[in-house]
């Protein structure tokens, strides 16, 4: 019989709220993203000095990943082969626009390497990998909208071929003032089946 | 496990618009990198490799377009149309499309663009390519820094092996733009002369632009004459730094190990390494460390960045095609710009273009975000 996989946990961050497995972990009355995510990180005890230099997309991905990986109670002694498959619509356009504004006016030209490096969507996977020491498979996809089928295919491929023990998957989008994170962890054990329909159902909760 | 082959291909590049003639140019040592002074595109002059706009526009007219396309779209459509025609494949629902780019139509954010800013969404780029050719499946866009092009080859194979598609067309492209020039400049990473990968006097990158495309298929019939089998692939993160390569080459080391394990071959069967070789101090040093840890210090190796510049998210696919041509012609292409080894560990850099019997090659790439990809290919003959 073919090996089956499960969704062991999932996390949403949207509308100034953080949810783990559908349960509210933290909500804030602050609408503005930067202030909200800062308060969420403090409340959820995700102490990490490098957090404050990240761009919006990386902060969003980093917090969602941290919520899930802390909850997974991974032992600190052994290495974990957790692959990362993320996706969104706006790529790094939020930071691209900021960077473009810094170079548009020749008389006010101030390109910054610390902004430029975040003009790639996969940087947020690098930030997660550094914090959790994951030397694992990574790929960042761009889709018009949340696409459970493609996330499912890519996670299945990595797990079946033993390229990863677990896969951290999901959707991390930041565009203008709008943001949304939905990450989930796929593993051998869990209660929820790893199927496109279940992924779609959890995304909508 | 289903076998995958890399077959028909095209490059729409600064050295020409088809792979075979470009390979002939490489054999003659022709480099596209030059001093570029074009105020209609760039805020300041630089050393790099660009496609002449007039030639691009006139060749693109042969497709008889009935609407306006951006520069990158023209490049992608031209390249993919040639690969599609050569392959003679019907675009059924068993055929996938992967688009690989770091920055897509990033130039539309600039003040000189006549296109709406919405064109910068990579999913829009995906739709334009998909609809132009009439692909039945939605375009899959991969944007994963400078490994995008070669990672797309690995991902295409996964879709085929999962039984989702029988064939996947991969098209990769990136532009030289003020956006990336100013960004790499802010890192002091650009060279003010043609770059010198692995050389003791290397001082940095030249940027380049290209669109390049391949067919990846599970069907062993009607392959191109230079088709190769994809033996193994992997993409591992350094987990070290977002803009600097690992000092131990950890992600690259693991990527090659994992690809070798999947291919079930020994590292000493690799005849040639097409490496990343951006000609920055840190990248080339990191690769030398990783290849030494893998016992690959004696394997002939080059970087092709000295010919085309660094074509960002397209570079891995461009260099894969040159690797296929190298195997087909049993020819190792010299590492342009290299004279004296300038990394701390030994490497067997190809100094002169030579003929040698070649069966298996390794393509590697590394990028911002700590990403690395390695893919192994073998000739069919």
TrEMBL record, chain A:
UniProt superkingdom: Bacteria
Protein name per its UniProtKB record: 3-oxoacyl-ACP synthase
Automatic annotation (TrEMBL), chain B:
An example Gene Ontology molecular-function term: 3-oxoacyl-[acyl-carrier-protein] synthase activity
Annotated SMART domains: PKS_KS
Superkingdom, taxonomy of origin: Bacteria
SUPFAM superfamilies: Thiolase-like
Protein name per the record: Beta-ketoacyl synthase
Keyword terms, alphabetized: Transferase
Pfam families linked: ketoacyl-synt, Ketoacyl-synt_C
GO BP terms, alphabetized: fatty acid biosynthetic process
Annotated ranges, domain Ketosynthase family 3 (KS3): 1-379
Family according to the record: Belongs to the thiolase-like superfamily. Beta-ketoacyl-ACP synthases family.
């Amino acid at each position: 019989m073919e090996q089956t996989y499960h969704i062991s946990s999932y996390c949403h961050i949207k509308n100034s709220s953080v949810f783990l497995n559908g349960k509210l972990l933290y909500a804030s009355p602050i609408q503005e993203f930067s202030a909200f995510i800062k308060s969420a990180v403090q409340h959820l005890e995700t102490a990490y000095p490098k957090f404050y230099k990240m761009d919006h997309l990386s902060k969003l991905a980093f917090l969602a990943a941290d919520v899930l990986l802390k909850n997974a109670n991974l032992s600190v002694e052994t290495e974990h082969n957790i692959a990362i498959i993320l996706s969104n619509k706006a790529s790094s356009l939020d930071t691209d626009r900021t960077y473009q504004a810094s170079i548009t006016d020749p008389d006010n030209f101030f390109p910054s390497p610390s902004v430029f490096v975040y003009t790639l969507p996969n940087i947020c996977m690098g930030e997660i990998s550094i914090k959790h020491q994951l030397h694992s498979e990574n790929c960042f996809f761009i889709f018009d909208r949340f696409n459970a089928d493609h996330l499912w295919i890519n996670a299945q491929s990595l797990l079946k071929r033993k390229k990863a023990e677990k896969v951290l998957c999901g959707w991390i989008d930041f565009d203008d003032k709008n943001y949304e994170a939905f990450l989930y962890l796929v593993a051998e054990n869990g209660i929820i089946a790893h199927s496109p329909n279940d992924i779609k159902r959890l995304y909508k909760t | 496990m289903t076998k995958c082959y890399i077959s028909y291909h095209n490059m729409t590049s600064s050295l020409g618009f088809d792979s075979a003639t470009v390979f002939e140019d490489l054999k003659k040592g022709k480099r596209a990198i030059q001093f570029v002074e074009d105020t209609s595109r760039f805020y300041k002059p630089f050393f790099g490799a660009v496609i002449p706009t007039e030639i691009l526009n006139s060749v693109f007219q042969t497709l008889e377009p009935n609407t306006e396309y951006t520069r990158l779209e023209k490049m992608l459509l031209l390249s993919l149309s040639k690969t599609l025609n050569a392959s003679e494949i019907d675009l059924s629902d068993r055929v996938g499309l992967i688009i690989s780019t770091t920055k897509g139509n990033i130039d539309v954010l600039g003040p000189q663009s006549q296109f709406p800013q919405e064109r910068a969404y990579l999913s829009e780029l995906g739709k334009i390519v998909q609809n132009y050719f009439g692909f039945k499946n939605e375009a899959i866009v991969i944007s994963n820094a400078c490994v995008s092009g070669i990672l797309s080859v690995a991902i295409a194979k996964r879709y085929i092996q999962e039984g989702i598609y029988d064939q996947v067309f991969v098209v990769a492209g990136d532009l030289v733009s003020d956006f990336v020039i100013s960004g790499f400049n802010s890192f002091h990473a650009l060279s003010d002369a043609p770059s010198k990968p692995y050389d003791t006097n290397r001082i940095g990158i030249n940027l380049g632009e290209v669109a390049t495309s391949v067919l990846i298929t599970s069907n062993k019939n009607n392959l191109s004459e230079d088709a190769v089998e994809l033996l193994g692939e992997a993409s591992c993160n350094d987990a070290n730094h977002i803009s600097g390569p690992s000092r131990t080459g950890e992600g690259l080391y693991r990527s090659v190990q994992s690809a070798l394990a999947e291919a079930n071959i020994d590292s000493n069967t690799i005849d040639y390494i097409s490496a990343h070789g951006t000609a920055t101090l840190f990248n080339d040093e990191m690769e030398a460390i990783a290849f030494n840890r893998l016992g690959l210090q004696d394997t002939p190796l080059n970087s092709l960045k000295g010919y085309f510049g660094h074509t960002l998210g397209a570079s891995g696919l461009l260099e894969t095609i040159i690797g296929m041509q190298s195997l087909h012609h049993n020819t190792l292409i010299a590492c342009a710009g290299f004279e004296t080894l300038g990394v701390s560990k030994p490497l067997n850099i190809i100094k002169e273009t030579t003929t040698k019997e070649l069966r298996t090659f390794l393509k590697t790439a590394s990028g911002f975000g700590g990403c690395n990809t390695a893919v192994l290919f073998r000739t069919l003959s």
